[in-house]
Write a structure and sequence with these properties.
Elements: H1 11-42, H2 44-70, H3 76-103, H4 113-136
Helix pairs in contact: 1-2, 1-4, 2-3, 2-4
């Protein structure tokens, strides 16, 4: 007897995956533009600074959206709790990274602060713009299936 395969993902999970993929594409496009732009205008150190900032920003958003994929079918309270805990954890990690950077300024003297700031903002904007675009095209039912049935229908 054949083993049953994994069940198909629910519509909620599929929507969350589409949002993750769309955001990731937008973030990566913005990252590529920034790395190339800062590489041409500021050299290798600016490009590396942009790449590091963009990769951290994409990781931040990817983890958050991946948590949403994992809890897409959960109760709304659990989804909110997962989102808040994920955000707090990601902010904590960024805080530790910032503390390490401030404690080791001499090692990071070659970083281009303009490239870091501009790339971070550009990747956030690219991720959110793409995610909004995907969200606007999602098919989200606004009614219950039982309400579609007429009187006397099963």
């Amino acid at each position: 007897m054949a083993e049953p395969g994994p069940s198909a993902p629910s519509p909620n999970v599929l929507r969350a995956r589409r949002l993750l993929a769309g955001g990731a594409i937008g973030g990566h496009v913005a990252l590529a533009v920034c790395v190339v732009g800062f590489g041409v205008s500021g050299g290798t150190l600016s490009a590396v600074s942009a790449a590091i900032a963009g990769i951290l920003t994409i990781a931040f958003f990817t983890i958050g959206q991946a948590v949403q994929v994992l809890v897409a079918d959960a109760e709304p309270g659990r989804v909110l709790l997962a989102a808040l805990l994920s955000y707090a954890g990601r902010m904590g990690v960024l805080g530790v990274l910032l503390a390490l950077a401030l404690a080791n300024r001499e090692r990071l003297a070659g970083m281009d602060p303009v490239a870091v700031v501009v790339t971070t903002i550009a990747v956030v904007a690219g991720w959110l713009a793409a995610e909004i675009r995907v969200f606007a095209r999602l098919r989200i039912p606004v009614f219950d299936e039982t309400e579609r049935q007429g009187p006397g229908e099963p």
